[in-house]
Write a structure and sequence with these properties.
Elements: H1 2-25, H2 45-65, E1 70-71, E2 77-78, H3 82-85
Antiparallel strand pairs: 1-2
């Protein structure tokens, strides 16, 4: 099962790199990439479009370098955004 997780992480990380590279190649048009999807308020569409390739590169680096993985006190592993955001009851505000 660990091999399947590693393969999935590698594939998804590679897809994020590819997607970010396509957007960065035409960065002058990046501000318009989210407009057709109506996923952000109209006044934030440009900022979201310019931030998207950098967020994709961060996600790719996290997946490919296993940055999101840390050892918990019970011996299991935490993966994902919860490591940075924190969870109630775990010593985070």
């Amino acid at each position: 099962m660990e091999r399947v997780a590693l393969a999935a992480r590698a594939w998804l990380g590679t897809m994020f790199v590819y997607s970010a590279a396509l957007k960065l190649a035409h960065y002058d048009q990046a501000g318009r990439t989210v407009t057709p999807y109506c996923v952000a308020p109209q006044r934030l569409e440009g900022a979201a479009g310019f931030a998207l390739p950098w967020a994709e590169l961060f996600a790719a680096a996290s997946l490919l370098l296993a940055v999101c993985r840390r050892e918990r006190t019970d011996g299991a592993h935490d993966r994902g955004v919860a490591v940075w955001v924190g969870r109630p009851g775990r010593g985070h505000a």
